[in-house]
Amino acid sequence: MRKPEVIAVCGGQWGDEGKGKIIDYLAQEADVVIRAQGGDNAGHTVVNPFGKFGLHLIPAGIFNPFTENIIGAGVALNPKSLMEEMENLSQHGVPLDNLKISPKAHLVFDYHEELDKLQEQLKGNGKIGTTGRGIGPCYMDKAERVGLRAELLTGDPYILLDEMSKALKSKRDALVGRNLAAAVDSYLESEYGGGPGFISNEDIGRMVVVSADLIPDSFHAEYYEELILNAHRLLAPIITDTDEIVHQRLNKNSRILIEGAHGTLLDLDHGTYPMVTSSSPTVAGLLLGSGIPPKYLTRSIGVFKAYQTRVGAGGMPTELKDAQGELIRQKGHEFGTTTGRPRRVGYFDTLAWEYAMKMNGFSEIALTRLDILSGVGDLKICYEYEHKGEILESFPTDSRILGECSARYLENDKKEGWDEDISGVRRFEDLPLNAQNYIGSTIAKPKFVGVGEKREDLIIIK
Ligand code: GDP
Ligand code: IMO
Ligand code: MG
Predict the structure, then answer these.
(1) Residues 406, 263: one domain?
(2) At which of 236, 262, 281 does a domain end?
(3) Is 44 a catalytic residue?
(4) Which of 114, 259, 315, 355 has the most other CB atoms within 10 Å of its CB?
(5) How large is the average pLDDT for residues 245-264?
């Protein structure tokens, strides 16, 4: 008898490994795809018979009309972005009847984005380089237990506005306090060179008024009335008991894919903290965010690029700042799907790979974008780091140490490149020998090798 199959698809590096493409491929035979965590900070590109799409919140199984696509409980859901994404897909003829939203997903609004940007500003040199999508502040509200969940969109929209109004009051107070503190600092600086000085109650009163005037409109609930009414109309009908859908499917022995966003090294607990995102993109996090009990997990696919990229701040010992790095960036169009920022490019790092394997226990590997390495010259693979004169053979979990590490390459770590166009190759043995050797040196034999952006540009190794 067929058993339920639950497959987690998880980023193995710092995101943008090609998860979207792998999900789009596997979803051709999936009953359900659930996006488990993160929000529209993710950008998952798929290229299939419908066209080319940069998905942010909608699971990449949406193109198969027989697959139910669920935005899961662990997701930070921006209703404005979701409605735009739905509109764009509809305009391209993609049916959306198969899209559902968990009532437990937390809502992201413009004020979360404002707070995200403000927090980054306050961090100065220590900034993370977030996508500015308000994801961190939304998860902060969730943890503080003051978040607004999708279920609120299903009732009277004015109740949601009322709840939002209460939440925004304390945020405005905090902002006024922060602006006031900054105003007092700058007053003392200008009058007394920053030393102790005197400010009258009248001065403070004036500063409070100025400070309150600096609060953006998006910190007032009225700003959201139209959005909430639209979201109530368009999204409420698809907010439903998705746990029930999933558990019925599990009983029917269906195939369920869990779509991860971001990557292992951006995981809030296990990534390169604090230069991470605010959710858990490791396999355990995917189970949590999707609400699927761990006992059902049958496969977990770690998606890795054949080289490496990172967007935002934080250590990356194999980063290439030379002409070859630029060549790979240009050839691979390594610019963020969400923010358009240039991605930092580096050689494949086996220390990071081993760490991701350790934390996730992947049952299979997908190695993507091998085709991008055709014609970029000889390559290197990193097997050890140097840190203050010492050799490290495992990935440091302290990001301060990671930031001080440099990749150390020995003669054996150099791999000869290849020039052939491999995008039409469908069998491992038809790859140029140097490409086969390169794969052999990166990681244990992968199950999937990506050789192009299109759905069918994939080698499947039996
Ligand atoms: P995700 O966030 O992990 O889904 O990855 P992104 O979509 O942000 O970035 C991966 C990019 O690589 C996208 O433009 C994909 O279309 C593309 N892609 C995925 N796999 C391959 C591959 O094997 N070869 C090439 N050339 N492009 C790929
Ligand atoms: P996908 O799903 C690459 C990075 C940001 C930043 C850090 C925190 O497309 O692989 P955030 O906005 O999440 O608070 O930013 O995480 N980041 C990603 N980098 N791909 C992603 O998603 C990312 N999601 C977040 O660049 O360094
Ligand atoms: Mg991406």
Answers:
(1) yes
(2) 236
(3) yes
(4) 259
(5) 96
Active-site option among 31, 44, 262, 270? 44
Is 170 in the same domain as 90? Answer: no
HSE of 319, CA atoms in CB hemisphere, 13 A: 18
Cα–Cα distance between 310 and 163 in angstroms, integer?
Answer: 38
Do 231 and 255 have their domain in common?
no
Catalytic residue among 16, 40, 349, 371: 16
Average pLDDT, the chain: 94
pLDDT of residue 374: 98
Say yes or no to pLDDT of 195 above 80.
no
The answer to whether residues 232 and 357 belong to one domain is no
**Which of 63-72, 211-220, 285-294, 401-410 shows the lowest per-residue confidence on average (mean pLDDT)?**
211-220
pLDDT in tens, 130-155: 999 999 999 999 999 999 999 999 99
336 with 455, same domain: the answer is yes
Q: Is 277 in the pocket of ligand 2 (CB under 6 A)?
A: yes
Peptide bond before 281: cis, by omega within 30 degrees of 0? Answer: no
Rounded CA separation 410/391 (Å): 12
Give the pLDDT confidence of 343-384 residue by residue, as tens digits: 999 999 999 999 999 999 999 999 999 999 999 999 999 999
Q: Tell me the angle at which helices 79-91 and 225-234 cross, rounded to the nearest 10 degrees.
A: 50
- Answer yes or no: do 135 and 31 share one domain: no
Domains: count for the chain: 2
Question: What is the value of pTM for the model shown?
Answer: 0.95
Q: Do both 86 and 24 map to the same domain?
A: yes
Alpha-carbon distance of 223 to 244, in angstroms, equals 35
**Which ligand has the nearest atom to the CA of 21?**
1
**In the listed set 174, 207, 236, which residue is the last one of a domain according to the structure?**
236
Residues 215 and 259 in one domain: no
Instruction: Give the Cα separation of 137 and 116 in Å (integer).
Output: 6
What local confidence, expressed as pLDDT, does residue 192 receive?
A: 82
- Residue 16: active-site member: yes
Q: What is the pLDDT of residue 2?
A: 64
Q: Name the nearest CA neighbour of 243 among 427, 357, 105.
A: 105
Domain of residue 220, CATH code = 1.10.300.10
Tell which atom from ligand 2 comes closest to the C-alpha of 313. 27
Which has more pLDDT, 179 or 235? 235
